[in-house]
Amino acid sequence: MTTPKPARRALDLRPSRIALLFLLCFAIVAIPVVTHPIPPLSDYVNHLSRMHIIAQVKSDPQLARYYTLEWSVLPNLMMDMIVPPLQRLATVFVAGEIYTLMCFGLIAFGTLTLHRALFGQWSAIPLLAFPLLYNSVFLIGVMNYVFGIGLALLALTTWIGLRQSLWRYPAALLFVVALFFCHLVSVGIYGMGLLAYEIWILVRDRRAPLAPRLLPFVAAGLPFLPVIPMLLMSPTWGLSGQNYWEPRGKLDGIEFVVNVYYDIVAFTLTGVVVLAAAWASRHHLLRVHPVLWPLLIVSGAVYLAMPRTVFATYMADQRLPIAVAFMIIACIQVDLRHRLARRGFAVVLVLLLCIRVAEVQVVWDRLSRWTGAFDASVDKIDRGAKVLVVYADPRGGTDVTDLGLVHAACLAIIEKSALIPTVFNVAGKQILRVRPPYRDFVDTEDGNPPTLEQMLLTEDEPSPDGPRYWDLWPKHFDYVYLLFTEPGDINPDPDRLTPVFEGARFQLYKVIKPTPPS
C-alpha cells in the first residue's frame, strides 16, 4: 500500500477570500464617488449635462428650444447609451455615480479575469488595480474611454479563453464593435493587447512549421476590419485631418498612472510596490507571464509613435499608459503560499488603497466647497437663460485642483435648462447639437472660453480677426460666469454687468441689456 502524496498547497488565497477582498476594495474605492454627487472632474459635468438632455429634451420645452440630438455612428457613445436609461430610475447625478462605479468594477474585474486567463488560476495580485482606479486620466473625466479600458480587458480575457476555438472570432468582433462606441483608443488598446499575445504564441511555438502559425496570427486581425467601414460612415471621419504629434508630455503620460493630487502619495504607493516586488523577486516568489515582454515592446512603440491629438481628440497618447498598467498587473504572479505572505499582501493592499482613497476624499471634500457654492449660484439663474462662460485667468483650468470648475457652468443645463456655450456639441464627437439661431452663440470646435480681455473687447464690436460666438455678448447672453477669479476681484464691467453671486474661484453676473435704438 503506497502512502498518498500530500496535496500541494495553493499559491494564492482561496477564490472565496479573493472575492471577499475584491468586494472590500470595491466598497473602499466607491467612497469618494458615493459621497460626491458632483465630483471635481474636468469633463464629467459637461458629459452629465448631455445625459440630462438626452433623457429630458422631449419633455422639457426649454431644453428643446436650444438643443437637439443627431444620433449617428460615433466612437463616443457608451455613456450616452447607458446613463439616460438609468436616469429613469434616479436623478442624473445618481445615474452618473452608478456609471462611474460600473467603470471601476469593469476595470478591476477585467484585470482579475485577465490574470486568470493567463495563469489558469485565480489570484489576489490583480487587486492591485484598485489603487490605480483614481488616476490623472480619470480626473479629466473621459468617461467613455474609462469604460472602454475595462471592456478591453474583458475582451482580451475572452480571446485567450477561446484561443483554441473558432468562437473567438465572433466574440472578438462583438467586443470590437462595443469598444468602437467607447472610444477609438479603446479599440487600439484591445488590438495592442491581442497583438502582444499572438506574438508570444508565435514565438512560443517557433519550432512548429511557420505557415500553420502565421495563419491564426494574421486572422487575429479580422475582427478589427469592421472598424474601417464604421469609421467611414461616421461623421468622425470628417475630423481625420485634425492630428498632431507632440514629443513633450510623454513622460507625463506615464506619471498620470500613479499621480493624482499629491506627489508624496504617488511616491509612497510606487515605493511600497517596488520594494515589495524586489523582496518577492529576491525570495523567488515573483514571476511574470512571458506575454509581458511583447506587451511592453508593442505598447512602448505605439506610445512613442502615437500623436497627441487623433481625430481632434486631445491627450490620445497620454491615455494609453494607464490601460497598459492594468495589463501589466494581470501579467504578474506572486507565490502567496505562506500564511504570512497572504496576510501581508492583504494588509498592504488595503493600506495602499486607503491611502489613495483618503487622498481623493480629502481633496474632493475641500473642492466640494467650490462646487457646492457653484450649485448655489445656479439657483440665481433664470430658467432658460443664456449663460456665457469667461476665464478671468487665461491659465485657469491647468491646475489639477481647478478641473472641477472648467465645465461647472453646465450644471445650469441640468438645473435651469440653460444655454451654455461650452457644452460639448462637436460634429463627429457628440450627438448633441444646438438649434439655430443659437448655434452661433456656442463653441462648436471644443476650444477654450474667451478670456476677460477678449470679452471686454467684443462688447460693442465683433472680433477683428473673425466672428466669435461671444461677439456682442451683452445682446445675446443673459448671464456671465467669470471663472478662476481671486477673492475681492472687482466688477470688470459695471456698465454691462450686475453682480449676482461670488464664490471662492468664480463670480456670476447678470447682463445689463443694451438700450435698443429709438
Task: Throw out a few tags for this protein.
518 residues, alpha+beta, 2 domains, 4-stranded mixed sheet, two-stranded antiparallel sheet, globular, disordered N terminus
Short description:
The protein is 51% helix and 7% strand.
Describe the structure.
There is one protein chain. Helices cover 51% and strands 7% of the residues. The protein has 2 domains: 15-40 and 75-234 and 249-361, no CATH class; 379-511, no CATH class. The protein is built from 21 helices and 8 strands. It has helices at 15-29, 31-35, 44-56, 61-66, 78-87, 92-119, 136-140, 143-161, 168-180, 184-204, 210-219, 227-232, 250-255, 263-282, 292-305, 320-330, 339-378, 403-406, 411-416, 452-457, 473-476; strands at residues 67-69, 286-288, 332-334, 387-391, 432-434, 479-483, 497-502, 506-511. Helix 8 (143-161) runs parallel beside helix 10 (184-204). Strand 7 (497-502) and strand 8 (506-511) form a beta hairpin. It is of the alpha+beta class and 518 residues long. The radius of gyration is 25 Å and the shape is globular. The strands form 3 sheets. A 4-stranded mixed sheet has the order 4-6-8-7.
